[in-house]
UniProtKB/TrEMBL annotation:
It is found in: Membrane. It is a multi-pass membrane protein. The keyword Membrane applies. InterPro entries: AA/rel_permease1 (IPR002293), AminoAcid_Transporter (IPR050598). It holds the Pfam family AA_permease_2. This is APC family permease. The keyword Transmembrane applies. The lineage of its organism: Bacteria, Pseudomonadati, Bacteroidota, Flavobacteriia, Flavobacteriales. Its main location: membrane. It comes from Flavobacterium zhoui. The chain crosses the membrane at residues 12-33, 45-67, 131-148, 160-179, 199-221, 233-256, 276-302, 323-346, 352-371, 392-410, 416-433. Keywords: Membrane, Transmembrane, Transmembrane helix.
Length: 438
């Protein structure tokens, strides 16, 4: 489908934004909550750290594949472009809408959670959570309507602040000397079946906490030098996140042992109360708000890029390709914001999130498969970055992704059936759209 010059995304982003959107789109309140749940399932300090490292290695190998794909096809919308090129229009249509749905839920969720944390600081606003959530949605929509550069600067600023407050929390934990460091409360055997089950359940939570690691790929078309910036952003951002996650867990279990924090709904608050006293809960709330503002900004930008790409390929309305003077895909942004507004009113996110995570992992798996397909199908396609240890690294990440999907299908059969039904229904919809397009 043809575009006019007015419908071209501007190349205004660089390496700094790439790292910022990866960090901003990954580190949220999950890292403040999941360590307690994982401690309850594993109850072994070294096994917990191994699990976080294992998840980190998974995303690093994934980044290796995405670096080649995104520099080979630097187009707005990320994954579905590679899948479409490798497996055809229907695969692109299905994966594109899967990816869009998965990334459309977070903005509404983060607006709601920010409003809930603000109420913790200001209890008199308790009856206004929906109003506060909508106000944040409108404010961030206005920010991105004003232009890509403003959104980029805000992302970089909030990501720097986010890393800063987490580093300060880690340092404060390690400076605390009120208890002896005795992390291993139990010598739980590593190879019991219960521990093995707990390890894989924990890994699912950890992968969810790492989700967002490939966010820079959605903006490849707007990068001034994608061939260099995207691989550097993927690896640098991923390593920063992995190091922070491992250090945060180590710091939490330095202050309080695994057995004490097991099954805690908000580990960070428990630790902060010990380190900072009665002000601990307020400090953690402020950290959570900074984390959420940064991740909200990233997720306000991502769905619009996917919808822009789908519109350009005829899988959504032609007006979805409209770009304003600031370089923002304005119609795609406004449509996505309207969806977020509706979700704020609905307000039930748990089912939607598990549904979205399932879809995301399917898209990742298809993207990894597309790398192998395109190496064979189009060997002469320019590849500014080539995946190291290919094909073994890609095969390894495909096997890991299939294992995750099997685990999801087993533990979340309802959503698995719904996704199968959507996939079957999507084909006649695709044929109808394709017929009208031609």
């Amino acid at each position: 489908m043809k575009n006019t010059n007015n419908n071209q995304l501007k190349k205004s982003l660089g390496f700094g934004f790439g790292i910022a959107v990866l960090i901003g789109g990954t580190i949220g309140v999950g890292i403040l909550r999941t360590p307690g749940i994982i401690a309850g399932m594993l109850d072994n300090y070294w096994l917990i750290l191994a699990c976080w490292l294992f998840g980190g290695i998974y995303i690093l190998i994934g980044a290796n594949s995405y670096a080649e794909l995104a520099t080979m096809l630097p187009k707005a919308g990320g994954s579905y472009n590679y899948i479409k090129r490798a497996f055809g229009d229907y695969a692109g249509f299905l994966s594109g809408w899967f990816d869009y749905i998965a990334n459309s839920v977070p903005p509404a969720f983060y607006c709601i959670v920010i409003s809930e944390y603000i109420v913790v600081l200001f209890p008199s606003l308790e009856s206004q959570t929906t109003v506060i959530a909508i106000a944040f949605l409108i404010a961030f929509t206005a920010l991105h309507v004003s232009g890509v550069k403003n959104g980029s600067y805000f992302q970089q600023l909030t990501s720097i602040i986010k890393v800063g407050v987490f580093v300060a929390l880690i340092v404060a934990c390690f400076m605390y000397s009120g208890v002896q460091f005795n992390p291993i409360e139990k010598d739980t055997p590593f190879f019991e079946m219960g521990i093995l089950f707990g390890f894989f359940k924990s890994l699912q939570l950890i992968i969810g906490t790492y989700d967002g690691w490939y966010a820079v790929c959605f903006f490849a078309e707007e990068d001034k030098n994608p061939s260099k910036n995207i691989p550097k952003s993927l690896y640098t951002g991923a390593i920063i996140v992995i190091v922070l996650y491992v250090l945060i867990n180590t710091a939490f279990f330095y202050v309080l042992p695994v057995s004490v924090l097991a099954n805690s709904p908000l580990v960070a608050a428990d630790v902060a109360k010990v380190v900072f006293g009665t002000q601990g809960a307020i400090i953690v709330t402020v950290i959570a708000i900074f984390s959420l503002i940064s991740i909200l900004n990233a997720y306000m930008m991502i769905p619009a890029r996917i919808l822009f790409g789908l519109s350009r390929d005829g899988f959504f309305i032609q007006k979805g390709t409209k770009i304003n003077k600031g370089g923002t895909p304005i119609v795609a942004l406004l449509v996505s914001s309207l969806i977020s507004l509706l979700l704020i009113y609905i307000g039930s996110f748990e089912v939607l999130f598990s549904f979205g995570t399932f879809m995301s992992v399917i898209v990742w798996g298809l993207a990894y498969c597309s790398l192998i397909k395109l190496r064979n199908k189009e060997p002469d396609l320019p590849r500014p970055y080539r995946s190291w240890a290919y094909p073994w690294s890609t095969i390894l990440v495909i096997i890991a992704t299939v294992a995750l999907l099997m685990g999801f299908a087993y533990s979340d059969t309802k959503n698995f059936v719904i996704i199968l039904a959507i996939s079957l229904f999507s084909y006649p919809v695709f044929l109808f759209i394709n017929r009208n397009k031609n």
